[in-house]
């Protein structure tokens, strides 16, 4: 009987591997969670709303106005979504014909661009970043623009932590003008605010920017994101968004987080995170099981380890949960580490030093 039901499943879903989020793969079973790029510190809010018997606004006016003020854009350039992930999906839903159109994404990067397209039955063109620099391969992107409606770029990039050259992003906007939308995912932009492309929205009608409150604002639990674009794109996305995507408590807390006092607190958290990142990177460079520490502009770092499988499992068993990246293109032996508190980072360093000493590391041991 079950087999008969499964025959009803769409063919492209039958063999789909869902996005392996930190919580989905059991990454909450530790006492030091450095695997989901969340803020290690909580912010406490009290809901100002007391009644919930009415449906919320589809696009809460107060929240849009607050975010418009924060990013210095007009009200009609902003769509509120359930995290940036919903923005990724809405763009595919609104602009891509299944079985006809395509997207481009540039791995190693955030997998939801690819997975969202696959769910929608939209072709995926994979144009990896340049191996040794992780910069955009503009030549191959331009050669593969046929049928492409959306080009997704995560900047700063996850999981590599690098920034794309602004001149390359501008070149990408120029070569796609009139042909495709360039979707720049700025989920981590508060950690490198000068690198935002939001000031180019007036100049490039094909530019779309994704934002979130999950990272620097320390509000991953409320799932609130924003799509920034010209007003015609926002109007189009409003046609396909769910009737009531933003709950009243989410909107209430998000508005509070965008008050000036809370924005200052966010900036202080970013400064603290960036300082902890620098400290941790310097510490890791002196540990013998570490093969390479990559530069980062975010609240996480990518690290290449000798004996990487054993390092990952040893830390996991001690309740220090990191994020495995070895299976991704050009990330052999790599693990991503979210920036925790200084105390959490110190514990991580201590355990890695113990691991190195215990395994009598000589600097030549590797794992395939």
TrEMBL record:
Its cofactor is pyridoxal 5'-phosphate. Keywords: Amino-acid biosynthesis, Aminotransferase, Histidine biosynthesis, Pyridoxal phosphate, Transferase. Pfam families: Aminotran_1_2. Gene3D superfamilies: Aspartate Aminotransferase, domain 1, Type I PLP-dependent aspartate aminotransferase-like (Major domain). GO terms for biological process: L-histidine biosynthetic process. InterPro entries: Aminotrans_II_pyridoxalP_BS, Aminotransferase_I/II_large, HisP_aminotrans, PyrdxlP-dep_Trfase, PyrdxlP-dep_Trfase_major, PyrdxlP-dep_Trfase_small. It catalyses: L-histidinol phosphate + 2-oxoglutarate = 3-(imidazol-4-yl)-2-oxopropyl phosphate + L-glutamate. GO terms for molecular function: histidinol-phosphate transaminase activity; pyridoxal phosphate binding. Homodimer. This is Histidinol-phosphate aminotransferase. It comes from Buchnera aphidicola.
